[in-house]
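Hi R.,

Here's the chain you asked about this morning:
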Amino acid sequence: VEPPGGDPMRSFGPLDPDGTTPAYKALNAGKTVVRLDLKGEGKRELEWLVADADVLLESFRPGTLDRLGFTAGRLRALNPRLIHCALSGFGQTGPWRLRAGHDLTYVALSGGLSRMGDESAPAIPFPPLADHAGAMQAVTAILAALVRRERTGEGAYLDVALQESALAWQYLTLGACGRDLGRGRDLLNGGAAYYRIYRTRDGRFLAVAPIEAKFWQAFCQVVGRPDLIARQSEPLPQTALIAEVAALIAGQSLAEWVRLLEGVDCCVEPVLEPSEVFGQDHVEARGAVQPDGQVLLPTRFDGVAQAPRVPLHEVETATWEEES
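And here is the predicted structure, written out as tokens:
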């Protein structure tokens, strides 16, 4: 359901020939889109939709749906079995509830942004972390509510916040109990020589992640540096060891490293450009990505691959009931 002028994301960024952005089409593939004016006649159509729906997911600022006349009581009267999920920046309560935000600011306030990047500065997460964490949390909560409804017949009201979803992913730092070493200094954010991204001779990058001793040993053996095996246990941050591994990786091109490491079980892989993903044998064998670049649901039900995604379908409100 979009406003009369359409979702603003239709025009965020470079446009395709059809006048919409690739991101909008990717996010809405498979959906049926209807435009409603919720300040006017669209209220009647929304009432009809709610009365027949399993789930209502809305992303207004707190209080907006109430002002439009769709309070919790009104929605419950329209459909007692409705699962209503309110996905917002900071949640429906609390002093930040009406504060504006975007992914970068939500992650900043979660404490997570301070631990991304290197020691010189934080790095912007991509894809957006809070947006995807919040979306997945909403999906999880909605599915749980649907299971409960099957058992009890009860609908539910779910309050999901993007900032809290990002916050929930910060358990490694918030739960460190004073052991947190800071950005670029801990095991998983750059402080370990065996868990870093290194630049190759041709300016490409190699992701090196042989955390377990057996993988580190295999890596050191194949690159001709068995003397580094015993140094894996050096205290973090492993500045000297990082410098040695960086100099080693910089000595060959990415293609040379890929050839040398082919078939070696050591958790080291090339950092691929998006255009290189399509040519990977495994990706093609799994059928995970469509020719147009859209990624299918990463789950196979009973061993069956997902069907291709179809483009979004737009309908007029007058024809919604007939087409449904």
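One quick note: The first strand starts at residue 32 and ends at 34.

Cheers,
M.
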